[in-house]
Amino acid sequence: MDKKQQKKELRKEIQGLRKAHTDQEIHEMSLKILERVQELPVYQEAEVLYAYMDCRHEVETRDLIRTAWKAGKRVAVPKIAGQEMQFYYITSFEEDLEAGSFGIQEPKETNPASEERALLLMPGVAFDEACRRVGYGGGFYDRFLEAHPQLATLALAFEFQVKEAVPYEAFDIRPARIVTEKRVIERI
Questions:
Q1: pLDDT at 99 over 90
Q2: Where are the domains of the chain?
Q3: pTM for the structure as a whole
Q4: How is 39-93 classified by DSSP, letter by letter?
């Protein structure tokens, strides 16, 4: 089986595992991840947080975004346009977001973020012990990080998303760390 097919099968497996968890279980695991993230110096020192808006039982980010706002951090979330992803600052979920691509809430294009010294939270389908990441197949984060290599990176994942090994390509960009509800995995 080629890598493309392996990734497709892995996405299907993880999607099934995410669906198998209740909303409450996802929320409780997400809160544990939030606690671990807040303990990390890379988070504590960040003045700007580039976060994703979760959907379909991904690690929830709204509580983390609220916590970042309370800590005085600026927060930006992504918007997809064609093959490109751009981040925009938000200060309110109600005022600054609208329905967007793939059924994910996206920011209104009013306040573009261009901070190069920021912490970027990466979503993903599956990860491995070497911090390799299988995304959703669009390559948005790989292209964005290739253009912005100085951003600190942190992936958020449930422990069931971490495998011994995942299929990867040379162009796949690995996060520096993966934070799950049980541990923090450092890139080797």
A1: no
A2: 3-164
A3: 0.94
A4: HSHHHHH-SEEE-PPP-TTPPP-HHHHHHHHHTT-EEEEEEEETTEEEEEEES-H
